[in-house]
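ok here's Substrate-binding domain-containing protein, seq below lol
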Amino acid sequence: MKGKEERKGRLKWLIKRVLLLIPVACILLWIYAVCQTSSIKDQTKIGVTYMTMNNEFYKSIHSEISRIADERGALVYVRDPELDEKRQSQQIDDFCAQKVNVIVINPVKGDSQPILKALKKARKQGIKIIAVDTQLKHFKPDASIVSDNYQAGVLIAKELMRRSSNARILLLEHKGTVSADTRIQGFKDTIKGHGSYQIVSELETKGQTEIAMPAVRKFLQSGVDIDTLVALNDRSAIGALAAIKEQGITHPIAIYGIDGSPDMKSLLHSTDDVEGTVAQSPLKMGDRVMEVIQDMTAGKSYQKEITIPVQMMTKENIDQFDVNGWQ
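and the structure came out like this:
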C-alpha cells in the first residue's frame, strides 16, 4: 500500500515538473522562431541570370558567387534563359516577385527591349542591378563588372601582326552582345589602315561550339581561302577547329580565341592547333560581384564600374599559367 502511494506521489511530482517546463519550452520555441524570422528577413537575396549556362565561363563566375554567398548566408536564385531574351525578361520578373535585393545579369542582348523593360520594373521596386561580363545599352546598372573587352581584341590584333605580315581573316561573332561586339571592334580598329590584313567574312555563332562548327564548315565548303580565324570566345574557336579538322584542311589556319579557358589552354600547351587566347578571369569577376553586393546591401559606397584586365596567352608564355583551371 505504502509503495503504491509512493508511486502516486512520484507521478504527481513528475506531472508538476512537466507542467512547469511547458511554458519554458514555449518561450524558448518562440524566441527561436523570432530569431529565425529575423534571420530570414535580413537575409540577402540575389537573383542571377546568365545569357546561357552552356558555357564553363559562366559556370565559373557562378561557382565563385555561390561559394561566397554560402559563406555569408545569402540566398542565390540562378536562372538560365538559354540565349532567349524574352525568357530572360521573365526571369527578371520572377526575381521581382521573389523580392530579391539584387539582380546580377549577364544579358542575352544588350539592347533587348523586353530585358530593359523588366530591369526598369525591378529598379522601381528598389532592386539593385549589376551587369556582369557584358554591359547593357540604354540602361545604366547600379554597377558593372566586365573584362577589358576592347583590349582583348587589340591584343589579338597585335599578336597577329607581330607573327604575320598579312592575313586573310574569318571573324566569329555574337552580334548584339556588348562584350563580343567590343572585342571584335578592338580587333578591327587595330588592323585598320593595314591593308595587308583583310577580313574575308564574319559569321554569327552566338559564342557556342555547336553553332560555330556547322557555320565554319559551311564557310570552308564555299571554297573561300583564309589563313586566320579570330573568335569572340574560346567556345566558338573550338567549334571552328572541329570544323577545320573535319573538312581535312591541310594548310595552316591560325586560330585565336578569348577566355583563357582550360580547354583552350590545353590545346595551346599541347598542340599546334591554336595560336593564342586572351585570358579573362571569371573567378575574379565573381569575387568582385560579391564585394559590390556586400557594400550595396550594407549601405556603403561601392565601385560602380569595374574593368578587369586581360592577358594574351601564347605558346611562348603558356607555361606560366595553370592549364587545368580558370584564373
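fwiw The mean pLDDT is 91. kinda neat tbh
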